[in-house]
């Protein structure tokens, strides 16, 4: 008899053999689904390419980036003076400009060269040299997102912690993961459409950073920084609607799964950039009002 007579005693649940079989069945189903996704639905041409066997390495690298940017980096710089990284930054920004320009020109040769349909383009999964070239560009685009991590590392070492905004960190930490799916499942075709415009924006962006790192004499002539965010936002809108086409016209033959990832990617970053743009514009407006008020007082 329970010492609390008003409470009903509930016997402990006994896990039956059938329950165990059910759990084992679910586990086997999940394992089978994962195997099917990694082996049967994936592009076999990249099975032995670096970082392509599974998303685990990419996830670990992205989490390591977050750990460095949000924890280890600030702790390391807590009692240190900012580093002077003018020349490393010049070299890095020049490399990024050339590297992204190379990827852009490679992708543009398909879209502007008449090889791809602007409406919708399926992936060529053959071993034709042009198909392998498109696949290689998808992989290099994916790999370039790890190189972009150095944007944040330079901010850390220069103690520009205010530059490590939510937008910046989320953007850099998630893009390698999204880009992995492109190279793994759809290297070429519609996937390269977004990559082409993204690398073009990066060419403009890193050209600006390179010139800005040259010093005040050059910085005063850089009037187009404010348009970089606008270019990013336009890019996301264009990619979102272009990725929507295969969902309406399945005969196109491009992966619906990858299309949904591209659409989610574009939508997520568009809202993040919009939020950043509004805050930056609001801060600039407040600063301008303060400057006008000070001039009137003078």
Write up what this structure looks like.
This protein is mostly helical. Helices cover 71% and strands 0% of the residues. The longest helix is centred in the last third of the chain and has 42 residues. The N terminus and C terminus are likely disordered.
Any chance you could write out the topology, listing elements then pairs?
Layout: H1 17-40, H2 56-77, H3 86-111, H4 129-147, H5 149-157, H6 166-185, H7 191-212, H8 216-219, H9 226-248, H10 256-297
Helix pairs in contact: 2-5, 2-6, 3-4, 3-7, 4-6, 4-7, 6-10, 7-9, 9-10
- Main beta sheet strand tally, sense and closure: none
Listing every helix as H and every strand as E from the N terminus to the C terminus, the arrangement reads: HHHHHHHHHH
Sequence stretches where pLDDT stays below 50 over 5 or more residues: 1-10, 289-298
Number of strands: 0
Given helix and strand content, the structural type is: mainly alpha
Label the overall shape: globular
Taking all Cα atoms into account, the compactness measure Rg is 25 Å
Strand content: under 5%
């Amino acid at each position: 008899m329970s010492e609390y007579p008003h409470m009903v005693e509930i016997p402990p649940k006994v896990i039956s053999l059938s329950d165990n079989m059910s759990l084992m069945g679910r586990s086997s189903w999940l394992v089978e689904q994962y195997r099917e996704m990694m082996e049967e639905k994936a592009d076999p041409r990249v099975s032995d390419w670096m970082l392509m066997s599974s998303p685990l390495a990419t996830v670990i690298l992205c989490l390591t980036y977050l750990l460095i940017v949000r924890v280890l980096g600030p702790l390391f710089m807590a009692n240190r003076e900012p580093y002077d990284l003018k020349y490393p930054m010049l070299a890095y920004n020049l490399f990024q400009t050339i590297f992204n320009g190379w990827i852009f020109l490679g992708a543009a040769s398909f879209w502007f060269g008449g090889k791809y349909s602007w409406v919708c383009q399926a992936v060529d999964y053959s071993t034709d040299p042009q198909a392998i070239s498109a696949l290689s560009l998808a992989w290099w685009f994916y790999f370039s997102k790890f190189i972009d991590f150095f944007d944040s590392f330079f901010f850390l070492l220069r103690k520009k912690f205010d530059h490590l905004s939510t937008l910046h960190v989320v953007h850099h930490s998630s893009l390698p993961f999204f880009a992995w799916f492109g190279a793994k499942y759809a290297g070429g075709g519609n996937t390269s459409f977004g990559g082409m415009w993204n690398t073009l924006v990066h060419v403009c962006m890193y050209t600006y950073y390179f010139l800005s790192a040259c010093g005040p004499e050059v910085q005063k002539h850089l009037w187009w920084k404010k348009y970089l965010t606008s270019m990013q936002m336009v890019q996301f809108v264009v990619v979102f609607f272009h990725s929507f086409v295969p969902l309406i016209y399945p005969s196109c033959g491009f992966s619906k799964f990858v299309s949904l990832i591209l659409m989610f990617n574009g939508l997520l970053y568009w809202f993040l950039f919009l939020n950043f743009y509004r805050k930056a514009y609001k801060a600039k407006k407040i600063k301008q009002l303060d400057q006008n008020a000070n001039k009137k007082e003078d």
